Amino acid sequence: MFILGKVLEALGCADVGFALYVGITQPHGMGNEFKLTGIGILVFLAGYIVENLSGKRS
User: Which of 15, 26, 27, 29 could form a disulfide with 40 if both were Cys (CB 3.0 to 4.6 A apart)?
Assistant: First the structure.
């Protein structure tokens, strides 16, 4: 469970980075950037919750 949490956190961070890239490169990408950032935050939050439920602390 701990590793699953860390993987989800990493995917969330990567998604937020991708959202920043989309927002910079697309002329009207602000709406897409907000959607992707929200998804990334939710994935990261899910990973954080799974990590805390596993009982291990880093």
Answer: 15
